[in-house]
Amino acid sequence: MPHRLSITLSDTDSTDYTPSLLAVDRALSDLRRGQIVAIQGDGDEVTLTLAAEGATKTAIERLKSLSGGFPHLILTTARVHTLGLGSFSTKAVRAEMGKAMRPDLIEGLVNPLARISKNDFFDIPFSEVALQSGESASIGLAKLSRLIPASISATIKNDDFKGFVEAENLTGLKKEDIFGYEEAAARSLRAVSDAQVPLADAPNTKIVAFRPSDGGIEHFAIIIGEPNPADPVLIRIHSECFTGDLVGSLRCDCGDQLRGAIRSIADHGSGILLYLAQEGRGIGLVNKLRAYKLQDTGVDTFDANEQLGFDADERVYLPAAQMLDHLGVNQVRLMTNNPEKVSVLKSCDVDVIERVEHAFPTNQHNEPYIVAKATKGGHYL
């Protein structure tokens, strides 16, 4: 993913991250409201960026005025590949649209559900975007905002970044703030609230809420029974799923996995379920619904994410490792069919003693999803 650098645990005090996190929070808010954001790059480089999703003619014209030229459309390589518009080695690609930078053509390029002929795209030149550039950071910002991962960006030269953003009333931040956001948010997690919450299948349950230092989205630890940190603790890492967990969707196995994990941990006597705010494998609920619509045309869950411009799986598990660290748990028996969860936890210095199988029967609606997880995702199913 363009906006993600190495993610490891650190002992640095969480307050060190707060200014950086708050800068990204403000930028995310502006981006979602259709505003221009300024990203400070190397030297005197400044990337002015606007979310491609929902971009208006007025906003594009202001971006042109601020930059003094034609901005570019920045897409992920995954999206360009699915369009059949070229093969690139970088994570992001620049579409040099010039005077063709109009909302309907932008929508057709970034949104696979848009009704527009792809013949309109073939005369647009594309070029690679440097991995740690301001343009690459603009894609990361769009992903963090849970919008379609594409931006309209223009890079200018200005040696007075602070003066420029103040004069133009723009939210400004450093590209490093975006690249390191997920790591900083995870490292700054702290327990902010807890309570006993008897569950239907696990009456002796306590829920602990963890929040990053910027007041961002919370993750939760569901502690069942009295796990002993001196012994390997039975755990499950579960990414939130509104459709499966809450309303009982049959398109996935998430609800079965959630309730089944709670029952299994209760039957075992104790353990922890870590409930992470990573809807739709990290793409957000709105984009997950878009992916569902694409799946209805015959593509699988991984290809649908990539058609939208995302990686097949955008989740990170550092928050889970950080929560375990706060709970004093280092040795775990991990309930999962996903080998990536095992390897990532190990890379975060969590001692995974055993992988515990966690599979459930399929139904006619989720069988293609389960097959894709096994054949493409490498899940043990």
UniProtKB/TrEMBL annotation:
GO biological process assignments: riboflavin biosynthetic process
GO cellular component: cytosol
Residues reported in the UniProt entry to bind GTP: R236, I237, H238, S239, E240, Q257, E279, G280, R281, T301, T336, K341
SUPFAM superfamilies assigned: RibA-like (SSF142695), YrdC/RibB (SSF55821)
Cofactor note: Binds 1 zinc ion per subunit.
Limits of the GTP cyclohydrolase II domain: 194-356
Catalytic activity: GTP + 4 H2O = 2,5-diamino-6-hydroxy-4-(5-phosphoribosylamino)-pyrimidine + formate + 2 phosphate + 3 H(+)
The protein's required cofactors: Zn(2+)
EC number: 3.5.4.25
UniProt-annotated binding residues for Zn(2+): C241, C252, C254
Molecular-function GO term, any one: zinc ion binding
UniProt pathway annotation: Cofactor biosynthesis; riboflavin biosynthesis; 5-amino-6-(D-ribitylamino)uracil from GTP: step 1/4
Cited Pfam families: GTP_cyclohydro2
Active site: D313 (proton acceptor), R315 (nucleophile)
Keyword annotations: GTP-binding, Hydrolase, Metal-binding, Nucleotide-binding, Riboflavin biosynthesis, Zinc
Keyword Zinc on entry: yes
Alphabetized InterPro entries for the sequence: DHBP_synth_RibB-like_a/b_dom (IPR017945), GTP_cyclohydro_II (IPR032677), RibA (IPR000926), RibA-like_sf (IPR036144)
Function description: Catalyzes the conversion of GTP to 2,5-diamino-6-ribosylamino-4(3H)-pyrimidinone 5'-phosphate (DARP), formate and pyrophosphate.
HAMAP family: RibA
Family: In the N-terminal section; belongs to the DHBP synthase family. In the C-terminal section; belongs to the GTP cyclohydrolase II family.
Protein name (database record): GTP cyclohydrolase-2
Protein source organism: Candidatus Terasakiella magnetica
